[in-house]
């Protein structure tokens, strides 16, 4: 808490000093008393303001802050409601003279003062205001800043009230058309998850994370004492892994996350089990920056699956340099190559890849259906490396389409669906 005299308070202090010195010089006890009285007035106001701090004591004011919707997509608006409540007469007296100001991260306020509607009752102050989420991430709201003056207007006290709240911001996403019956070349295979019949459902294997429980062979599982599933990976809808390769540039990173999230949601809505892979996916920033993978999510979980998938994108951070970006992509490619990805669909949003990463990704294409958007920025060496990456993936059997950061996600998606080997 900060305490400062107001201009009136400074004037009283100046008058007190002058009056006291004048009284001493003239030998006037009355003037000395007046100077001391004026000084005592300001000091008493300071002490009272300190003792009546609304954030301290047994009769402190309570703050309740709610944000709806929360999380919110980047570029969308959310409404904030803050209530300051007094529970007794002393609290109501404190509440009456308060001026309230809310604090918000620049990513929510745009760096401008928040414009709020305030409603007051004797025991409650309600503040409502909108914020627009400008960027993916987790951003703080609060605490409240309260300002009050004493009854004589000689002291101004400023303090914080209540704690912080957090607004989680999902990436902006686009509604992509659901892929259906997009042929990949061989007459008996259908890309992007169209149903293909199983030739022999009698072959069984151990259950793996992400397998559809509808494929569990319960009789054999009971006999073995462990879950067994039909081994034909093409029975039903194939699982989908969405590979996210974040660039160093933050603007391109946000487009990459939005594109990958849109693709993942399209596949999830189509009935697939979906997971995210790469760029420290599934790890908190303090846990390190290596490539990872999330558990598979399935639309049978309802709207919670969409929210769960988007939650996984909130904390993704761009690499600090190109070496780190290359290491992340290589780790993610190796993870896909060693995680029973055979028969899966791999959707990737990639930048120009190193020679080692291109080799690892090419190996994945031998066992999966690979579809990649290769991001380029149209400049010199990066554009050349993006071209080499696309060519290497095509030679390995991937479907590849070029894309530019900031391009319309729907146009990129349709271009990818129409891509050939």
- Coarse morphology: elongated
Q: What distance lies between the first and last C-alpha atoms, to the nearest angstrom?
A: 66 Å
By CATH reckoning, the class of the largest domain would read: Alpha Beta
Q: What percent of residues are in strands?
A: 15-25%
CATH architecture of the largest domain: 3-Layer(aba) Sandwich
Give the spatial strand order of the biggest sheet: 18-17-16-19-20-21
Number of helices, counting only DSSP H or I runs of 4 residues or more: 11
**Number of separate structural domains:** 4
- Biggest sheet features: 6 strands, mixed
Are there runs of 5+ residues with pLDDT below 50, and where?
182-191, 193-202, 284-291
Overall mean pLDDT? 82
Residues in helices, as a percent range = 25-40%
CATH fold naming of the largest domain: Rossmann fold
Domain DUF58: 204-279
Transmembrane segments: 9-28, 34-51
Keywords: Membrane, Transmembrane, Transmembrane helix
Pfam families: DUF58
């Amino acid at each position: 808490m900060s305490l400062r005299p107001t201009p009136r308070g400074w004037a009283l202090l100046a008058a007190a000093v002058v009056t006291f010195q004048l009284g001493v010089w003239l030998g006037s006890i009355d003037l000395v008393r007046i100077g001391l009285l004026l000084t005592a007035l300001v000091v008493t106001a300071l002490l009272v303001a300190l003792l009546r701090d609304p954030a301290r004591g047994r009769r402190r004011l309570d703050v309740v802050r709610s944000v709806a919707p929360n999380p919110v997509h980047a570029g969308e608006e959310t409404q904030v409601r803050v209530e300051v409540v007094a529970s007794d007469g002393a609290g109501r007296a404190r509440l009456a003279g308060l001026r309230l100001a809310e604090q918000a991260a620049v990513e929510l306020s745009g760096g401008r003062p928040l414009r709020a509607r305030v409603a007051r009752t004797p025991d409650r102050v309600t503040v409502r205001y909108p914020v627009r989420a400008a960027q993916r991430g987790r951003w703080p709201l609060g605490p409240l800043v309260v300002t009050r003056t004493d009854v004589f207007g000689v002291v101004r006290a400023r303090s914080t009230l209540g704690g912080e709240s957090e607004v989680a911001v999902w990436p902006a996403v686009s509604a992509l058309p659901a892929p259906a019956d997009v042929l990949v070349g061989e007459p008996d295979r259908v890309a992007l998850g169209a149903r293909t019949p199983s030739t022999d459902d009698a072959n069984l294997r151990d259950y793996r994370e992400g397998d559809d429980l509808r494929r569990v062979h319960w009789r054999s599982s009971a006999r073995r004492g462990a879950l067994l599933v039909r081994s034909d990976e093409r029975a039903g809808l194939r699982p989908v892994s969405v590979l996210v390769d974040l660039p160093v540039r933050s603007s391109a990173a946000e487009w990459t996350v939005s594109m990958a999230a849109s693709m993942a949601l399209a596949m999830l809505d189509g009935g697939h089990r979906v997971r995210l892979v790469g760029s420290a996916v599934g790890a908190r920033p303090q846990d390190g920056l290596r490539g990872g993978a999330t558990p598979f999510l399935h639309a049978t979980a309802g709207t919670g699956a969409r929210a769960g998938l988007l939650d996984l994108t909130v904390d993704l951070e761009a690499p600090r340099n190109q070496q780190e970006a290359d290491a992340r992509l290589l780790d993610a490619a190796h993870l896909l190559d060693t995680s029973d990805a055979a028969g899966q669909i791999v959707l990737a949003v990639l930048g120009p890849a190193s020679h080692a990463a291109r080799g690892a990704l090419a190996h994945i294409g031998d066992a999966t259906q690979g579809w990649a958007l290769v991001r380029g920025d149209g400049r010199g060496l990066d554009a050349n490396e993006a071209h080499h990456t696309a060519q290497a993936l095509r030679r390995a059997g991937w479907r590849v389409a070029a894309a530019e950061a900031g391009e319309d996600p729907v146009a990129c998606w349709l271009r990818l669906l129409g891509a050939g080997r």
